[in-house]
Amino acid sequence: MASVELERPSSEAVHQTEVDGGGGGGGRGSKGIMKKTKKAPWKLGFACLRTEYDREGNFDMEVVDVDGAGVRRTPPTHLVVMVNGLIGSAQNWKYAAKQFLKKYPDDVIAHCSECNPSMLTFDGVDVMGERLAEEVISVIKRHPGVQKISFIGHSLGGLVARYAIAKLYGRDIMRDFSQGNGEFRTNGSGDLCVEEKFHGKIAGLEPVNFITSATPHLGSRGHKQVPVFCGFYTLEKLASRTSWFLGRTGKHLFLTDNDNGKPPLLLRMANDCEDLKFMSALQSFKRRVAYANVQFDHLVGWSTSSLRRRDELPKVILKLFMEV
Q1: Residue 1 lies inside a defined structural domain of this protein
Q2: Number of domains in the chain
Q3: Alpha-carbon distance 199 to 28, whole Å?
Q4: Residue 314 CB: number of other CB atoms within 10 A?
Q5: Whether residues 112 and 33 fall in one domain
Q6: How is the beta sheet containing 59-65 ordered, strand by strand?
């Protein structure tokens, strides 16, 4: 399984401490208002699992070693950003985040994004990608010790993450912080050296894993990309014409967007553009994995989520399809 391969897991953990935002349910509210401690049967040593919410509903999860005063000995260095799909939220990733920390407690900060929850997922891949990029910057600002970054996107979240990494590619985040505080720092070596230093970096961090699950990379237009339509041309055509029902996101998915005469966004994201290096950003990751459902996914077809033609389906699975 080519997934997030981080540092060797520690065997330390006994209690789970959750810092709730005080809003209940989704955890919205200000940080650190209420703490709840509960047994976590998978923990073996002495540690606590800290969940920190911000006002927007995003939350970070990390394991904090209990050492006398409960201070972690070494801060985690690997930021794992998890992005929800259509009409989703950060809560969709809460269980997965706990499993990451269970397996890799020493080196991971699991950030469950909620800058694009619920109806905001209709705003378009580009708008959501911009939001995610800014959110990642704010997370790095809160955790300046991180050195590596990985993304995991479910369904639409994979496209949003692809747009966001293009926005963050080769960007000097620490320099942005300095300028935002009214300061300007330089080592006198010029902008060219700065660009070379951050070339191949995502937000100034080492890109490790980029993973998508059931993401419609090729869109949802025609070619049996949406299995529920059963390949009927009339239904696929009707879906394309009514894509506005899902807002700008629907137009992007069905390739009907035409912003200022430009090609559809998903087509542009298959190449580097002048302002956004979509493919260079993707290629900078050490591991790039696209998981696809061969059966029983009625909304995202195997071809679009695996970036393959239908005749490239594994022969055993293809035989099963023919027998159904």
Answers
A1: no
A2: 2
A3: 36
A4: 10
A5: no
A6: 47-53, 59-65, 108-112, 78-83, 148-154, 206-213, 287-291
42 with 133, same domain? no
What Rg do the C-alpha atoms of the chain give, in angstroms?
21
Tokens of 57: 């509903």
Residues contacting 104, CB < 8 A, separation 6+: 4, 6, 7, 9, 78
Q: Are 198 and 204 in contact (CB under 8 A)?
A: yes
Distance between the two ends of the chain, CA-based, in angstroms? 29
262 belongs to a structural domain:
yes
d(CA 318, CA 72): 51
What separation in angstroms does the CA of 55 have from each of 18, 114, 248? 16, 10, 26
Distance CA 210, CA 70 (A): 33
Give the Cα separation of 206 and 8 in Å (integer).
18
SS3 content of the chain, % helix, strand, coil (to 5): 35, 20, 45
pLDDT digits (tens, 9 = 90+) for 208-238: 999 999 999 999 987 778 887 787 777 777 8
Question: What contacts 106, CB < 8 A, 6 or more positions away?
Answer: 7, 8, 9, 10, 63, 74, 76
Query: What are the tokens at 69?
Result: 């005063």
Contact indicator for 65, 46 with CB cutoff of 8 Å: yes
Distance CA 203, CA 168 (A): 5
136: part of which helix (H) or strand (E)? helix 125-142
Q: How much is the pTM?
A: 0.75
4-41 pLDDT per residue, tens: 333 333 333 333 333 333 333 444 333 333 333 343 44
**Three-state secondary-structure class, residue 140:** helix
Tokens of 171: 């960007």
Q: Would you call 96 helix, strand, or coil by DSSP?
A: helix
Domain range for 53 is 11-73
pLDDT given at position 40: 41
